[in-house]
Design a protein that fits this description.
With about 325 residues, the protein is α/β, with parallel strands linked by helices. The chain has ten helices and ten strands. It folds into two domains: about 5-120 and about 300-315, ATPase, nucleotide binding domain (Nucleotidyltransferase, domain 5, 2-Layer Sandwich), CATH 3.30.420.40; about 130-295, Nucleotidyltransferase, domain 5 (2-Layer Sandwich), CATH 3.30.420. It has helices at about 45-65, 85-100, 110-115, 165-175, 180-190, 210-225, 230-260, 275-280, 295-300, 305-315, and strands at about 5-10, 15-20, 25-30, 75-80, 105-110, 130-135, 140-150, 150-160, 265-270, 290. α1 packs parallel to α2 and α4 runs antiparallel to α7. About 45% of the residues are buried.
């Protein structure tokens, strides 16, 4: 018989639900909370309340689109962490209530593992071979991971300060751009050139740092605006291109170093920043087999949660109703 998994994602500001049947995606519904734009960042209390208001509708939409009755579900998977605690509590509580009412297993999922394993959804595309190098890049994380099996992950490098997506948002705020700034910088970059040179931090090993770049941009803008108060507006495309190119070089140089150190030639990307068009283009020069997620799988989504739920279900790895959300959950 077919194995049908409902996945629920609520780690930050996306309320999402997906239905996976024998590894094939039948529905992937994502509600993006727009309430945070006016605040210039995600407000945890606002996010959790929005999840409460939306989760029933989002789950029902996923089941309807998949043409699946809830009684056909074999298990429900949810994001246990990492993420905002209030947001995680909404998703985990809802998943447990479904598990209890239908008497089906509940399966907790590590959000960061799911970003890298989403490539194994049965969609006809070529899959990476184990072991492989994973690069998770998002608003909350920047980490290099050696992935040995579906359930064996080892962090070999990570940011020492800001995550790359966080750096994009902070630099974008300096430019006067809306939150989230990453997609806007990516769009503007295609219209500009690398005119300005910014700092690339010297960090040993495979770790990352973006605070120095952020500070360099801040002081550079202050200096230029003293000469010309319209400097940012007149140079916005070149500023975006210069910053994005620098960030991409930081990421790719670390990837190249990791490839040389581990002798692994399969590189898998995950997380919202993996949707960056400029990065995807620059990765063409990497001497490795690069696996990029579909754009719909790059940002937070429930398809990846359902996929890991399916893998765990097949291996008998179930959770319990007493499992608690873990805001700072490690990969």
């Amino acid at each position: 018989m077919a194995t049908t998994i409902l996945g629920i994602e609520s780690s930050c500001d996306e309320t999402a639900a997906a239905v996976l049947v024998d590894g094939k995606l039948h529905a992937n519904i994502i509600y993006q909370q727009t309430e945070h734009k006016k605040h210039g960042g995600v407000i945890p209390e606002v996010a959790s309340r929005s999840h409460i208001n939306r989760i029933v509708n989002v789950v029902n939409k996923a089941l309807t689109k998949a043409n699946i009755d809830k009684k056909q579900l074999d298990a429900v998977a949810y994001t246990q962490g990492p993420g905002l605690l209030g947001s995680l509590m909404v998703g985990s509580s809802f998943a447990k209530s479904i598990s209890y009412s239908l008497n089906i297993p509940v399966i907790p999922v590590n959000h960061m593992q799911a970003h890298l394993l989403v490539h194994f959804i049965d969609d006809g595309f070529k899959k990476p071979e184990f072991p492989f190098l994973g690069l998770n890049i998002s608003g909350g994380h920047t980490q290099l991971v050696k992935v040995n099996t579906f359930f064996d992950f080892e962090i070999i490098g990570q940011t020492l300060d800001d995550a790359v997506g966080e750096a994009y948002d902070k630099i974008g705020k300096m430019f006067g751009l809306e939150y989230p700034a990453g997609p806007i910088i990516d769009k503007f970059s295609s219209k500009g050139n690398r005119v300005f040179n910014f700092t690339k931090p010297k960090v040993k090993g495979l770790d990352f740092s973006f605070s120095g770049l952020k500070t360099n941009v801040l002081y550079f803008l202050r200096k230029e605006q003293e000469k010309n108060k319209n400097f940012i507006r007149e140079n916005i495309f070149d500023l975006c291109c210069s910053c994005q190119t620098t960030i991409n070089e930081i990421l790719i140089e670390k990837l190249e170093k990791a490839i040389n150190l581990t002798s692994l030639n399969n590189v898998v990307l995950g997380g919202g920043v993996s949707a960056n068009k400029g990065l995807r283009k620059d990765l063409n020069g990497l001497n490795a087999k690069v696996f990029l997620p579909k754009i719909s799988y790059a940002t937070d989504n429930a398809a990846m949660i359902a996929l890991v739920g399916f893998l765990k279900y097949k291996n008998g790895f179930f959770g319990s109703l007493t499992d608690e959300p873990i805001a700072n959950m490690k990969i």
